[in-house]
Amino acid sequence: MFFCKSIKHRFRRIPQHRMYERHRPRGIAVVMVLGLLAITLAISYATLRGQGTTAELARNNSRAIDARVAAQSGLAAAIRKISENAWGGVETTLSSYVTNNSQYRVTFTTGDTKLASTVATLTADDQRRIEYPFQLTIESTGYAWDPLNAAIRSEHKSRCVVQLVRKKMLAEPTGWSLLTASNVYQYSNQDAYVQFPVRMNGTVTLLGKLKFCTEYPGNSSACDAYLSGLNGRALTLGDYRPFPQNLFIKAAGQDLTTMTTMLALDLGTPALDPLLYASPPSHPLTVSTYKLYPGGKDYTVTPLPGSLSGQTLAPDVLQNPLGIYGTSGALTIQNNVQVTGTIITDGSSGSEIKVTGTNVVLRSNNLPALYGTSQTYQLPAAIAFSNLVIDKAADAQINGAAMVWKQFEVKNDNNTTATKFSMTGNLITDTLLLHGRSTWAIGGATWGSDRTLFTLQSVTGIHYFPDYEQSLRGFTVKPTLTFSPDSSGVKPHWHDWSQPVYQADPADPGLKWEVVRWDENQQ
To answer: I need a labelling partner for 125 at 20 to 30 A (CA). Which of 255, 309, 367, 451 fits?
Structure first.
């Protein structure tokens, strides 16, 4: 009984909840604590990492700002530098530290670099083309380094385009304005030969002895009849007198007959005027390069071969914006040649310019105007150390000034074709030789006989001897050689090629510029 009771007691039913407690795994709390700890560590790491990234982004942003500020500081410094006389020019660079960890580096390029590939295709009167050589692209690159790691660097580019404010050109030599006040100015005491048919529409100054009508007629009565006929027909049939305007010549040393004829026939006003005496500037000899402004690009003068034929030469806005051409020795210009710019011969004794062809035009190039003015200046079309010769049967024009240190000669002696030459501008020369037509050299006796026959028919026939000779012998009254001043208001300018064309105004500390465009961080 006792035994059974014990066994029953031993095997009595255990409560279910206690049975479950007995079988729960041990150490779960530790696992839970470790899990919570891991989560906490992960969140802490993420927080710390985020704070580190934020700090790194802040440093990166600070470097970017420092680089930009450095680049802009470089542009400001560059604009100030090019406005000082001490600027080294477009070939130089400019660099400086802004802070211990930032600096700039500046480069200069002639022209607006955005137009470099297309500017040559623009029309000649397009302001973008005209101003291109007077513009500078200034590019400033700013750098900023991480103060903790110099290998980490930020970079920023700032770029601006500035344009020269042209306020002053290099001063002209003493006497230049006097030389160019006349349409034709012979500055030496060499004999000047002038033979009709020729017409000089502006003021003529000859400091040498005038040899007038020495090739023909060779008969004084015929000469007087022809010249007085030109004077008489001027108002109704066309004014073809050789000197319709003022003629200034030295009274001393002149031929009395010439002086009397000139005065009697109203062909000019011979006068001695000391104010008209002026010495020519010196020839520049060999010119190989030139500058437009102090510190500007060196442009290379385009060398010309010994002869030109079938060519058109004009200023190159990228390589030769003023159209300056140089010769080595003599230059022969044949048919169909158009040159816009300035031809400068070298200083050798045989460095003449000889025009032998037809359809030849030498034209001065307009210089860009000075700030605030509308006055147009031109460099001479031709600067000849020796002679400038218009050969027989040539057909040529010169639009602009020509400076000749020896002979300016027009040969007009071809038997079949008259030489055609017109000049609009200023001729300044040592010696003037304007020849007549060989077909008109028929001898004094024949001219005298024609004069007699003209007188006999003049009452009922042709009223003026020049028209009579044109009818009888085909002598064209209208001159094919003409000289005229430029009525457009253009002024010829003389330049010293050892100096830039445009200069800083003495009232300024240096050149003046205006900002055309400003770009940030563009390629």
So the answer is: 309
